[in-house]
Amino acid sequence: MAASYSLSRCVVSPAGKHTASVIFLHGSGDSGPGIKSWIRELLKKDLAFSHIKVIFPTAPARPYTPMKGAISNVWFDRHKISIHSPENHESINSMCQTLTDLVKEEEASGIAKNRILLGGFSMGGAMAMHLAYRYHRDVAGVFALSSFLNNNSIVYKELEAAPQSLPELFQCHGQADELVFHQWGENTCTRLKGLGVTSSFHSLPNLLHELSLQELELLHSWILKKLPEVTEIVQ
To answer: Which of these, 38, 102, 127, 199, could form a disulfide with 169 (CB 3.0-4.6 Å)?
Structure first.
């Protein structure tokens, strides 16, 4: 087994007492600081909360097949960007182990699993769905922005084999996305709903393969709904 290692990351710390965490995974070729800056540019401020720590890890550099083997910061390798392509389970599973260490770090700091959200943009959203629905079904929720799962995804197979209570899914997808087609995101939502996942799918007209102010505002509201201040939690 490959040795586990710590991912570099940047953090937006809560203004007050830390009682919940969000792990936000960037898209292929980006970085934690990169997507944090992109969000700040759109919101005109950080994705910040009074009680929630937001963690932006950076994927390790590795050869990436869609770029003809060039080195890129990606969560996993894949044959091509297509819903019809088979998954590269070795690289996905290895990264799930590494990201599990990050989840465990938050638990060790006193954050319960049901106070952690996993999500990301594009490849980061797909990685978060693998991490949550295969390994951490007791997290508070999952978000996937401009993301999809392959038609033959192992996520679907494992959910079919072991159905149970599953974290809620929040999705946003641009209708004009020419890299990860809108219908791929819709297909993912439909398949997961059929396997017992409660989900919301937000279609954004004229949006390409990018983040938008509207979806970040929707995401901000959803995060607060899933991770309310501790004093608001009904015991």
So the answer is: 199
Of 85, 91, 202, 209, the catalytic one is 209
Q: 89-108 and 123-130 are packed helices; what angle lies between their axes, rounded to 10 degrees? A: 70
The answer to whether 6 is a known catalytic residue is no
* Residue 177 annotated among the catalytic residues of the structure: yes
Cut 0.70: pTM above it: yes
Task: Give me the catalytic one of 122, 146, 147, 199.
Answer: 122
Smallest CA-to-CA distance from 48 within 111, 123, 56 is with: 56
Query: Is 130 in the active site?
Result: no
- 57 phi/psi in degrees, rounded to 5: -75, 160
Distance in angstroms (rounded) separating the CA atoms of residues 206 and 11: 31
Sign of CA dihedral 185, 190, 193, 195: negative
Identify the bridge partners of residue 11 per DSSP, sorted by sequence position: 55
Backbone dihedral angles phi then psi of residue 153, each to the nearest 5 degrees: -55, 140
Residue 234 has a pLDDT of 43
The angle subtended at Cα 128 by Cα 45 and Cα 220, nearest 5°, is 30
Q: How far apart are CA 27 and CA 183, in angstroms?
A: 19
Query: What is the reported pLDDT for 6?
Result: 75
All domains of the chain, ordered by start, with CATH?
A: 9-227 (3.40.50.1820)
Given the residues 147, 177, 182, 199, the one annotated as active site: 177
Pull the structure tokens for residue 6.
């710590």
C-alpha angle 168-56-163 in degrees, rounded to nearest 5: 25
